[in-house]
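Input.
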Amino acid sequence: MNKKYHMKQEIINRLEYKEETHAGEIETWYDPVNGDYFHIPIEIVRDWDNSEVIGNDKGNGDND
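Output.
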């Protein structure tokens, strides 16, 4: 069974990134002190308020 718990900051600080797993939804991180590997779910938060137009396919000339 997988063990789930609140991770202490001292462990987070020493983790080493290993790879992206499961189509970008989970990352694998390694703890070099005790040899544990962790799957860390990724949460994506979109910042719509800081978006910018990068192109326009209507041909109005502003961003095409």
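The first strand starts at residue 16 and ends at 21.
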